[in-house]
Amino acid sequence: MTPENTKEIQSLKEEVKKIKQTSKKKEDSLKDKIKKLQSKVRESTSYKKLIVASARSSYDPQMVVDSLKFVANAIHSKNWKLVDRTVGISGNLMTRGICPVCSINLVGKEPKPRDWTLPCHIKKCPFGDT
Ligand SMILES: [Zn+2]
Question: I need a surface site. Which of 69, 83, 90, 102 has the fewest CB within 10 A?
Fold first, then answer.
C-alpha cells in the first residue's frame, strides 16, 4: 500500500464516521418527532372518544358536562389510565378515580367504589372490608 492510499483510506474512514454521526442525529430527531406525534394522536383520539361517550350517555346533562370537564383535564395531564377508565372500551364516563391498591373505579364527589363492587377482598385496599 502506498502512503497515498493509506491517506485516502484514513480520509474515507473519517468521512464514514461523520456520516454515521449525522444519521444518528437525524434518527434521534425523527424518533423524537414520532414520539410527539404519537402523543398528539393519543390526545386527539381521546377527545374524540370523550365526545362520542358524552353524546351516547344517558346520564343527566349536568353530570355529562362535569364529566367532559373532568376527562378533558385528565387528557390534558396525560393521565391515560384514567382516560381509559372513563372513555375507553369498557370505560364509564362517571369514573372519577382509580383505587391505588386494587385499581377499582371510583365514583362521586368524594370518589369511592360503587356499593355493588364492595367488598373487594383485596388486602390493604382502603375501601375493602369495612
Ligand atoms: Zn381498592
Answer: 90
What's the start-to-end Cα distance of the chain, in Å? 86
Compute, in angstroms, the gap from residue 37 CA to the centroid of ligand 1. Answer: 35
Phi-psi region of 2 (alpha: psi -120 to 50; beta: other; left: phi over 0): beta
- Cell numbers 464514514 correspond to 16
Output the CA 23–ligand 1 centroid distance in Å. Answer: 49
- pLDDT in single tens digits along all 130 residues of the chain: 788 899 999 999 999 999 999 999 999 999 999 999 999 999 999 999 999 999 999 999 999 999 999 999 999 999 999 999 999 998 999 999 999 888 889 999 888 888 777 767 777 888 876 5
The domain ranges of the chain are 3-98
**Ligand 1 centroid to residue 121 C-alpha, Å:** 9
Centroid of ligand 1 to alpha carbon of 85 (angstroms): 15
Expressed in angstroms and rounded, the spacing between residue 127 Cα and the centre of ligand 1 is 5
